[in-house]
Structure formats: structure tokens, C-alpha cells
Amino acid sequence: MLVEIAIGFYTTFMKMFQPRVTVLFPEQTRPQPAHFRGRHRLQRYENGLERCVGCALCAAVCPSEAIYIEAAENTKDHPVSAGERYAKTYQIHLLRCIYCGFCEEACPEDAIVMGPEFRLANDRRDKFVMNKEDFIDPPEKGFGSPDEYKLTRSHPEAVKE
Amino acid sequence: MDLFDLITSIIKGLAFPLIPLTLVPVIVLFERKIIGWVQERPGPNRVGPWGVVQAVADAAKLIFKEDLRPAGAIAFLHTLAPALTIVTTFLTLSVVPFGPKLSFEFDGVMRTVSMSVLDLNLGLVFFLSITSISIYGIILAGWSSNNKYSLLGGLRSSAQMVSYEINLSFTLACVLILAGSFDVYDIVEAQQGGFLNWFIWRQPLAFLLFFIAQIAETNRLPFDLPEGESELTGGFHTEYSGMKFAMFFMAEYISMFVMAALVSVLFLGGFQGPVALPVSEWIGGPAWLTQALNALIGLFWLIAKIAGQIFFMIWMRATLPRLRYDQLMSLGWKVMFELATINLIYTAAVQLMFGSNPMPLFTIPFLGTISVQWIVLFALGAGVIAGVELLTQAYRRRTLNAC
What we know:
The complex is a heterodimer.
Chain A: H1 2-15, E1 40-42, H2 57-61, E2 67-73, E3 85-93, H3 102-106, E4 112-114, E5 129-130, H4 132-135, H5 156-160
Antiparallel strand pairs in A: 1-4, 2-3, 3-5
Chain B: H1 3-15, H2 18-38, H3 54-64, H4 75-93, E1 102-106, E2 109-113, H5 123-144, H6 148-179, H7 184-190, H8 199-202, H9 204-217, H10 229-232, H11 242-267, H12 279-283, H13 287-319, H14 325-354, E3 360-364, E4 368-371, H15 372-402
Antiparallel strand pairs in B: 1-2, 3-4
């Protein structure tokens, strides 16, 4: 009995000097799997034009009806998107969204993709309704700033395009 | 009792409780850290650098927490129970000697002051009686909470503490026989002159039994059945919150401290260092400097021994699973009680045979003396431990073969 207990004590003592398995979350992060479905992003072409043409297929396919789109015509002088029309209003209700990724599959222009961001906590309900400005890639970078998406890349092929 | 006694008592009574009180947050932090390391976690590390302010944050939370009392609880007893627990715990602290006696000249007369709050010549009897009273706190907490789990926890703890207190007293009696006194200072003096003179070598079995019994007395794992959160949702302190819970919590940690101090006094030479170096004589200087130096060295060694034991207790918590209730009772009554009785009888017999001044075989300077009585006691104690070990292994082998 005493020998077994001594072996147990030896085991736990040696465990004290082993590397920790804990990931210290805000400072360290674990690599995300490819195709991780986090908060949505709206992508742009390299020339800065929006990919979204306002077709609302994503809103149609959304099982929880979390997407609301109002489309508008592009003007010749200041085209917003590459197509004829663009999304004037693009809202996603993050509390309704179930992160299924159907919108991403439905999008014919590869405009909406599921991004890597998963830290979505907020202190007010109305802050969970994202407007277009909140999740579209910034125009100067083309495909989102490296700071914002340095954690992982869930769609490397989309970045290359 | 004159003015001198009054002044020194007040100073001692105010100063010495501060030692465990300041050490409790440190112990709590290290407990959480060490258990974290054993489980390959970093432990608390968010509040302050390396999590050092964690215990302060916990205390602040407990102070501001709502003080709930369940419906149907007996208000007076529900409030009395945590107070009783912490008061008795502090009373047990009063017999711990934190250092060698000091002597001052007061009013033209040399007076000696002990570095324990109470200077009793029956210190250990006082200690045993106060630990018996501390059971009441837990029973009352369990009973007055109007909760089945609390009551079960209180009942368990009373049964457990009564069973293990017998082992505690029996093993303590062996040390008393060797030292020939109930006074903690006499016991420490009997272990003078280096670590070979410590009673742990003369009483290895008593040391083992006392250590196990004191863990059961302080309700620490693997004997924390009164709390037993997997079966009793917290046991006797299920219905306590806020500062009342904090009192139980503090009492547990202070009693850990006191019990470790007592093990140091009884078996590990108390406030004396492992090597009897006359440091203060080398430094020289006036008498007050020598005394202050001796007192500080004594305090250092006592705290070091307590720290080592508390580390072992935390390590044990991280290693051993909780015993089942019938296992706890059969360990206490069917194994430890018998061993303690045998140990008491053979210690008394050996002491009668060789007398209180055994012949020294050889003396190692600064380390201690080895005498005939010693070797006999050590051999008997080690023999009993080895015999128990062999018996349990044979029993295990038999039951394994039977399967």
C-alpha cells in the first residue's frame, strides 16, 4: 500500500515540471481549422470594388432569416460593385445567425464568406445587428487588413483570387 | 500576574495570530498553483503578475457577497457555528512556540517570556481539548442549516474527528513519554542538538500516524468527507456564503498551519534548525542582539518546516483520491488505532528499560547523538511500518489471485 502511494506521489511530483497544456487564450490562440465558420466578411476585388451585387440569394437561403438586403443600381461614375447593382443595405443579425455557412455557398460572386472571428460578445442587443460597414473588408487593403485577420485564414483560395 | 505579564501577553496575543493570518492567502495561492501544475494547468494567473493578488480578489468577493440564511435555519446557531470554528482554531494556535524564550530585565528583575501566546506547562492537553471543542462548530453548522446534506456532513465530521482524535492523542503520548513533559518548550528542548535528535527518528511510526490523523482532523483531502462535494454539495458549509463561509475556509487553513507547527514541535525539532550551529555566538554583540537573532532564526526554521509540510499536504491533495466513508472508519479504528496502541506500549516499555537518560553510542558534532534507546525505537517503528506494508501486499496478492 505504502509503495503504491509513493509511486503516486512520484507521478504527481514529476507532473509539476511538465509543460502546461493550457492555451492562455487572449494572449495565445490555437490554430483554427480551415473552413472555420466565424463572423461573416464581405470581400472586394483587388481594384477595391465590392463583390456583392445585391442579388439577395444569401437572404433567400438563410434558414434563420438573419440577412436583410436592399439593393441599388450602380452609377457609371461611381460604381460600388462589379455588377449592375450593389447592396445598399446589408444587415446580418448575429443573434439569429446559426453560422451554417449556407449564405457562403449560395453566393454566386464569392462576396460573403465566413471569417475567422469568433469573439462576438457584446453588452447590448442592438450591437449584434451588423451593418455593411461593420463586416466589409476595408477598401485600401483589398482583402482585409492583416492585423484583423492574422489569427488564421479560413479561405486561402479566396484571398489569392 | 503583574504589569510585565499583562504587556507581554497583549503584545503576543496581537502579534502571533498575524503570522498565520498573513500566510493564509499565500497558502491558498500556492495550493491553487501547485494543484494547477500537477494537472498541467498554469493555475491562477489573471489577477496581478503571476496571480499574486488572486487571494485578495477572492477575499474581496467574499466580503461583498450576500450573507444568506436558509429558511428554517436556527439563526443563533447558524451564526455561532463559524465563529466557534475560527475561535477554537485561533486558540489552538496559542500553544505553538514560535521561537526560543526571551529574557528581559524589567523593574530590576530578569524575566523570561515564551514566544507562544500561552505559556502553559500543560500546553498539549490544552491543545487536545480545544481541538475537541472545534468539532462543535462543524456539527452546529451542519445541524442549524436545515439541510440534509449539511447534517450528513456534520455527522460525518463528528464521527471522523472523534475516531482520529484517539490516534492523535495516542501518538502524541509517545512523544510525551520520550520528552517527559507536556510543555511544548520541554519537548523542543528534548530534541536539541541537530536533526539526528529529532523525534521523527525515534518515532517513525508515531510520526506517520500523527501526520495521517492530523490531516483527518483538519478535514483535508484525502479525508475531507465532511465537505465531500461530489456527494454532499459542500457538506457542512453548503448553506454558508460570504464572510461566514470565509470563516470556515480560513479556519481550515489556519488549522493546517497550526497542525503543521505542532508536527514540527513534536517530531521535527520545533524552532530549531537541522544543524545546531551557534550562529549568534559567532556574530557576538550585546545580549539583546543575540536574543533577537535567535528568535528570528527560530521563527525562520519553524516557518520553513511548516511550509514544507503544507507543500506536502497540497501535494497529497493533488495525488490521493478521497476515501470512502467505511474505508475511513476502518482505517481509523482497525489499522491506525491498533498501531498507535502498539507504538504507545513499546515506547513506554523501551523508555522504562533504558530510562530517561539513555547511554549515547556516538555523537556527531552539530548533528546529534545516537543512543541505544534510539536504535531500538527506530528499529521497532520501522519494523511495524514494513510489516504493515508486507501484509497489505500479501493481502493484495491473495485477493488478486482469488479474482
